[in-house]
Amino acid sequence: MRRAPALSFLLVTVFLDMLGLGLIVPILPALLTAVTADASSAVLWSGLMGSTFGLLQFVVSPLLGRLSDRYGRRPVLLASLTCLGVDWLAHATAPGPWPLLAFHALAGACAGTYTVVNAYIADIAEPDRRAGAYGSIGAAFGLGFVAGPTIGGLLGAVDVRLPFFAAATLSLANVAYGWFVLPESRPGDRTTRLTLRTANPIGAIAAVLRRPVLGRLAYAHLCADVARMIHQSTWAFFLTYRFAWDTTRVGLVLAAGALAGVVFQARAVGPVVRLLGEKRTAVTGSLVGAASLLGTAFVTEPWLLYVLVAVGVLGSVAGAAAQSWVSRSVRPDEQGAVQGALTGIGALAETVVPVTAGAAFGWLLAYAPPGLIFVAAAGCAALSALLLARTPDARPVPLR
């Protein structure tokens, strides 16, 4: 691994990005209720803001990736972080729902930092160490996911807008930190084409899907994202239905699983990939994840649920291994473009799946066993494993 200070900055960036998003989760309903003066309107605005965030991330992420190929990773990353910090500050002072919606859409547009971080990792990490680096990024992501809602709830109890000021302060402080410690990982290439066809999300994703190896990896990535979003969108509701757990117990189990995932990804992903290789690790991890989801569909005892959560943690190796595999299948001058397309695919899943899965789960509650929603998630994870297993290794070929 080259440039250890750069990796430290990337880990802090991902942690703070997720922390900033997590800070606002527990207080957004209260803030929307305060600015709309109506609880039912607040629910509608919350759903609209979530969908708009994902839509703008889908639209802008491929552009940010292409810009990082053309102008370098450092300026694009620092500019996105600055935009995000200013945007959280605007959230804190927004007087009504329409400005909040506009600022949240801008936050989605600025949330492509994950795209540039993944491209930066591909630049600085040696191929045999890349999966471990992506595992560390996943651990930082998970740690921010655990810490954000907790801190946001505490700050929101003091003042409903305080978490937004905290998120802005952390983001802008990280920009200052990066200004001094973050070197450029790869000088920009002004010959990289920046056209409407190459930078729009549909064109960027289509260019990736046209390539035989990379296309299969992208479809596998989409299936894994759909499985993950189905699980995230319905898991807490399912436990409340199946075991009559209160929110405290659900939150504790969720936090424990996330923390276990943080430790596992930080410490185990690199050694496992060096032992099995990227492909076998990705396939095995996806199958293990599918088994965990399938078991959840039919779980009847709380102790068995804890076992399934632990199995799901083991399956988390798949994401980092597949990400490393993708980066190895791409030329250095188009890492940003490909990572942007993959981020766009993930954002599309995050926009569509929660609404669809929520509606399906509600229907199942009334007419069928609700655990079937996890059978569907397990099927998506198994399909991801099948696509990975049928994907050969190949040398990078240029995007067209």
Written description of the protein model:
With 400 residues, the protein is mostly helical. The longest helix has 33 residues. α3 packs parallel to α5 and α13 packs antiparallel against α15. The mean pLDDT is 84. It has 17 helices and no strands. The relative contact order is 0.15. It folds into two domains: 178 residues, Up-down Bundle (Growth Hormone, Chain: A); 187 residues, MFS general substrate transporter like domains (Growth Hormone, Chain: A, Up-down Bundle). Helices cover 82% and strands 0% of the residues. It comes from Micromonospora mirobrigensis. Belongs to the major facilitator superfamily. TCR/Tet family. GO terms for molecular function: transmembrane transporter activity. It is a multi-pass membrane protein. It is found in: Cell membrane.
Please summarize what this structure is:
The protein has 400 residues and is mainly alpha-helical. It has helices at 4-24, 28-36, 39-71, 73-93, 97-110, 113-124, 130-158, 162-181, 196-199, 201-209, 212-243, 247-276, 278-297, 302-314, 317-328, 335-367, 372-389.
What attributes characterize this protein structure?
globular, Growth Hormone, Chain: A, mainly alpha, 17 helices
Q: Look at the structure and give the CATH class of the largest domain.
A: Mainly Alpha
- Tally of structural domains: 2
CATH superfamily grouping of the largest domain: MFS general substrate transporter like domains
> How many strands appear in the DSSP assignment?
0
Instruction: Give the ordered list of helices and strands.
Output: HHHHHHHHHHHHHHHHH
For the sheet with most strands, the description reads: none
Sheet/helix structural class = mainly alpha
The count of helical stretches stands at 17
User: Do you know the CATH architecture of the largest domain?
Assistant: Up-down Bundle
**Poorly predicted ranges (pLDDT <50, ≥5 residues)?**
none
Please state the overall shape, judged from the principal axes of the Cα atoms: globular
> Helical amount among residues, as a percent range?
over 70%
Question: What is the rounded distance between the termini?
Answer: 31 Å
Radius of gyration: 20 Å
What is the CATH topology assignment of the largest domain?
Growth Hormone, Chain: A
How much β-strand is present in the residues?
under 5%
